[in-house]
Amino acid sequence: MKSHRIVRQGLWHEVAVRLRQDISKGRLAPGTRLLEGDLADRFGVSRGPVREALRELARSGLVVGLPNRGMFVCTPSDADLEEIFVLREALENAALRLAITRLLPEDADRLSGILRGMEAARERGDSAARKALDLRFHREIFVIAGSARLLRSHDDLVAEMDLATTNTKPNWNDDIYPPEALHSNILDALLAGDEDKVAAAVQAHYAWTDDRLFGTSEEDAPGGSVGASSARSRTRVRMSQMTG
């Protein structure tokens, strides 16, 4: 059996990273009970780091504690997926506004290289590599933005979205990812330093995914009513009702 022993410092953080990966990749399915003893044995650590890691994942929305039952991998609903999707769009807009002020030539080269890699992966039919590069492109924007809190929130939402998609959209596959042109539009707007163009490019990107993930984007709403059936519209209505 392959060893999972952790030998570096910051044990609870390392355990949390491993568990987050296992949850987002589907190796720990929604509803799986997480036993401290089993996890401690698996990673070769005491129960203390495992307990703290589970608390961190609970704060991130990936794990839930049930009274007198223990800790379990969350089982997200359709509404959870829609909310995560909306929050990812909002965070990306915030990150891009910061990135506009911090972008260096080497950052632009790195993003361009990722886009070239995405195109090459598409041409050879490597959907797994294309998905990984898609996620890397978006994460790089948060790295450029220079906000540790935004980056941490982004990473948590990506893991939550993977979990929610696995649980609520079993037919979703790695081939259904926005085309390179939509990513290029984001990069072009970032290079231009134009916040309005950035917002429009991000909106177009998320509308494309909204349409394919949830069924109807704002552009396709019946009768031309903007946002009538989009996930983003439904979630914004729910959130405004909660805070209104």
How confident overall, as mean pLDDT? 85
Terminal CA distance reads 54 Å
The portion of residues assigned to helices is 55-70%
* Secondary structure tally, helices: 10
Structural class: mainly alpha
- Physical arrangement of strands within the biggest beta sheet: 1-3-2
- The stretches of 5 or more residues where confidence is low (pLDDT under 50) are 5-9, 217-228
Task: Count every beta strand, where a strand is a DSSP E run of 2 or more residues.
Answer: 3
Strand content: under 5%
General shape: globular
Biggest sheet details: 3 strands, antiparallel
Which value, in Å, is the CA radius of gyration? 19 Å
Sequence of secondary-structure elements: HEHHEEHHHHHHH
List keywords for this structure.
244 residues, mainly alpha, 3-stranded antiparallel sheet, 3 strands, 4% strand
Please characterize this protein's 3D structure.
The protein is mostly helical and 244 residues long. It contains ten helices and three strands. The protein is globular, with a radius of gyration of 19 Å. The termini are far apart.
